[in-house]
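Posting for a labmate who doesn't have an account.
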Amino acid sequence: MSYIGKHISSLATPAFIVDKEKVEKNCRRMLDLAKSNGIHLRGQTKTHKTVEGGIAQTGGTKRKVVTSTLVECEMYADQGFDDILYGFPFIQSHLERVFALTERLEEFHLMVANQEACQMLEQSAPPEGKLWSVFLKVDCGNARAGVWWEDDEAVDIVKFIQGCQNLTFQGIYAHCGNSYGAHSISEVERVRDSSVEMMVSLARKLKEAGLECPHWGVGSTPSCSHASNRFENLTEIHPGNYVFYDNQQVGLGSCGLDDVAGKVLTRVLGHYPKRKQMLVDCGFTAITKQGIGSQAHPKMIAPVDDHQDLMLSNMTQEIGFVEPIAPEGSIDFSLHPVGSLLKLIPYHSCASAACHPTYYVHDSQGIIQELWTPCRGW
């Protein structure tokens, strides 16, 4: 069935709906932030995993993206994108696929998180006429992958890379994901500023050791959603969630509810006045439980759009439970007949979008303009 030109109310539910105008606005804002600071935006594509989203993030240039999976890299390469960074720590099992991507693209980059990965690459011949192009993953407090920013290990690894025949060094890269643990905008900004200082310090340390460092950057959606002259000290930023935003970003002060572009459409299945609940046709196969316990109510999975007194509070595989946020609250069931539509605002748009094989992209009137198909798998 073709939904193009129809209203979102015609959709089978649950469905992931995307407001195109909001996506475009969110992407323009981040591009403008980078431009105003004289730096590059390398948009992270993992939230949406679509060609169309990548075009919006790059302002139509199809250059400078970072991905979280090889299947994203391959999809973008097939669609004419270039200057792609596979932003996942390289391991030996990736070799065959990254060889093909290095061979076909003008610029394809790998992320290394330790010297062992560099040694593996040095021992594996790249495509003829090419070098393995690598960024070093740096930990600035996120405590995930990468070398600690002030350890001598970082200098040793870069020194090793620059002494290799098969490798070329692109720079250092940090994801300040610890900004997601902040409880205020000022705390987000503190994490951002600290991460910038750490990366600038490491870039300076490398240069003092006689090692070239072409690029250094940080990025997360919370840290990049507020203007700052600190960005001028970087060469690039690499946020990703901002394309859709979500309720987590609203809580972090990255955006307002009106900026959230991706939502889950669901229909009311039944009324249960004795327990002050409605059932909807959206379970955990359509929206993530991630974030429960960390929102406005300890039971909240997702707030209901345009009905901020209601929340999705529990789910089974295909069914969700909607109830009032306030314990003393009630539901006006006459406003929500059986079969009527509700929109849920995901806590984490990346995880919720991943539940859906198609995004229904609509205009401000709810008319479906496009269908976006995210790539799936790894």
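Reply:
Got it, the structure tokens are right above this. The mean pLDDT is 95.
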